[in-house]
Structures are given as structure tokens and as C-alpha cells.
């Protein structure tokens, strides 16, 4: 499964977004606040989930802030770390 | 100490959801069991258990708001909402409402799931949400946050005596004037690890709780929540909790009362009831309707509240009545306007909760 599909499925299942399907998630919409509506606890959960499911560590805020903007930015971050 | 006025009751368990479901079950007979899947030596066994469905919570709180709330806290939140609804106070200000929760086991599913994740992936891959939900006070926090209860919140865990201990704290808060009302509740949940332990400690797989077979182990595990909205008022919709005691088993209790015994099929606890109750005592038992769980006494309190409201004890059928101690089975119209919920823990402790009509 491609990174993007796997990531969207993970967001819905692991963050219990029961009112959404992976297809409902806009690739460029902000993950936090207005877009997907995630919050700071979700951010911590996401860091753990990315490490657990993709083997990619988000080390600090400097890396995390740009990576956690949207699905597309997170996919780019994961793919770049995996190919590095 | 002050009396606690019972203004609302909310229950869920193997019998269904709400006081109406419990009442219906008490009339119709012992409910069909759910099942608990227990992994044993590479196989999955189905163990009889009284399982609770927290899905009706959606009637009170939207799905998004509860997405991080686990089964344990969902049961507590649903019980709390049902108690408020029953009291007609769902829309009332919660500014001076405290939350006190009793639990014998705590959030077992999340606790073991969190520990598994640490074993499997190390602490770096442990879920922070699972961690926050694994602490005993998580349910009280979720109840307070979702219902905007502005008073203090507390969880008391003293295994079989949790209900009495937590109720004493409730009484203290109301007596001190720290709060005007308390959402007092009891909750316990089942999980596969607990089922596994249960199977190891109590092999045999009983088909039903036989409460008055005091020497036989017939307990069947249960889960659920029983909540009460309690105030200092002189007027109570159900009745008042007029005395709470927790002590070592000493002299026998008075035979002039009617006791709701929490005889839940644990042979190890039965001895205490024999010691504490004289042969001629008037007794009733409702454990076969909700199962065996440390906070079972709270379900007896719900039945007692219902009995005081109606002036009669609900029928209890589908199991044999008292035999060798010579206790008299209480049923029908109440002899007097008070009942005592009694719980013995098998380690020489007994908890009494006396409730009476206002």
C-alpha cells in the first residue's frame, strides 16, 4: 500500500476518526485546527504512530512542525527519511 | 453525618442500559450472558460474562468528542449521563458538582493494552492516549470534562470495599459544603487478561450464578456502571443514604432489617455473610442480574433505590432461595421503609449502606 493510503487509513483507525473515511481526508488540508481538527495530544500520538508504522522518527519540533502540516507534507517527510 | 438524597440513578451492564432495562430484566428473569474471548495456549475460548454496551452514549455526546475515550470511561460517562437525565438535570449548571468514582479493577483493557505496547515496541512506541486512559482516575476526568463538572473529582479503589469508601468521601464533600451535588458512580470492566486470570483461579465454567449455594464457586464475571446524583436535600426522588459503615466483621447484625446481599457466587466471600447475618435475617439477592464485579454493591444500591421508590422489592427469580443459614427471602411489599446493602470481601471486612425512604 502506498504511503499516503496507509497514512490516511492509520489516521482514521488509530485516532478513531469514526465520522470520516480515508477518502474524506483532503491531502493538503491542515491536520490541526480548521482542517482535520486534530489537537496537541493527537500530535504526540502521531509522532508515535509514524515511528511504529513507518519506522520513521520525528526527532523534535524543528522536524515535526513542517512535517505535520498536512497529509502531503507528512508523506513527503516519511518518504524522504525512508529513502535517505 | 448528613444523609445523601438520591435524585437520579443511571445503570448499564449485562441487563442493558438504564434503570428501565434493569427493572424489566428483574421482572423477566436472569439475562442471557454475553461472552468474553480469552486466549489460552494459542486458542481463543469464549467465557460466559455479563458484558455491557456503551454505544447508547452517542445519545448524549457526539462521536468526535468521545473518540479518545475508552470502554471503561465510556461506561462511566454513560452511567453519569443516565443519572443526570433520570434526575432531570442534564441541562442544569454543573459548576458545583463533584465527581466521585469507585472501581475495583480500573481500566483493565487499556492498562494491559498499554503494557503490551511497551513490551512489544518499547516505551518510545507506547501510545500517550492509552497511557492517559490507563490511570484509574481517567473516567472521573472524562466525566468531569464532558459534563463540565466544576467541582473536585476523585477515584477510589479499595477492591470489594470501593463503593463504601467512595460513598464516604461523597458524604464528606457534601457535609463540608465543598460541592452542592455529587455524581457518584461505580464502574468495572472486563478484558481478556482478566478472563484468563479468572479461568485460572476459578476453573469450571459455571452456567449461572447460584448466590445461595454458599459453598460452591458459581461466580460469573460482570462489567458495567452504576451512577447516582446525590445531594444534601431533605427531598429525594428515591430515598436517602442514611448510614455508611465499613468495618471488620464482629458481632452479628440485627435480624430486624432487610438486607440486599452482594452474594455473587464467590465461595470465599460467603463465609463473611454467614458470620455477620443471624439465621432469621430477611435477605434478597440480585447479583444474577448483573454478575460478579468488585463494585457490585452499587448495583444493589440502584435496586434498593428502585425498591424504595416503588415501596416493594423487585422480583428475583431464576435461582434457588436461601438454604442452610435459615435466612428468609424478602420479596414483595417492603416491611419497613429502609434497606441495607451489605458486602463482605472475604478478608473479614464488611461494608454497609443503609438507604431509607425520605
Question: How does this model look, in words?
Answer:
The complex is a heterodimer of chains A (84) and B (358). Chain A is built from four helices and no strands. Chain A is globular, with a radius of gyration of 12 Å. Chain A is 56% helix and 0% strand. Chain A has helices at residues 3-14, 40-54, 61-67, 71-83. Chain A is mainly alpha-helical. With 358 residues, chain B is an alpha/beta fold. Helices cover 30% and strands 25% of the residues of chain B. Chain B is built from nine helices and 16 strands. In chain B, the strands form three sheets. In chain B, strands 1, 2, 5, 6, 7, 8, 9, 10, 11, 13, 15 and 16 form a twelve-stranded mixed beta sheet that branches. A two-stranded antiparallel ribbon of chain B has the order 3-4. In chain B, strands 12-14 form a two-stranded antiparallel sheet. In chain B, strand 1 and strand 2 (16-17) form a beta hairpin. In chain B, helix 2 (71-87) crosses helix 5 (138-147) and helix 3 packs antiparallel against helix 4. Chain B starts with a strand and ends with a strand. The model of chain B has no long low-confidence stretch (mean pLDDT 93). Classes of the chains: A mainly alpha (84), B alpha/beta (358). The interface between A and B is medium-sized, with 12 and 12 residues. Chain A: The modification O-(pantetheine 4'-phosphoryl)serine is found at residue 40. Chain A: It comes from Geoalkalibacter halelectricus. Chain A: Residues 1-82 form the Carrier domain. Chain A: Carrier of the growing fatty acid chain in fatty acid biosynthesis.
Question: What is this entry, summarized?
Answer:
Chain B: InterPro entries: Beta-ketoacyl_synthase (IPR000794), Ketoacyl_synth_N (IPR014030), Thiolase-like (IPR016039). The complex is a heterodimer of chains A (84) and B (358). Chain A is mainly alpha-helical.
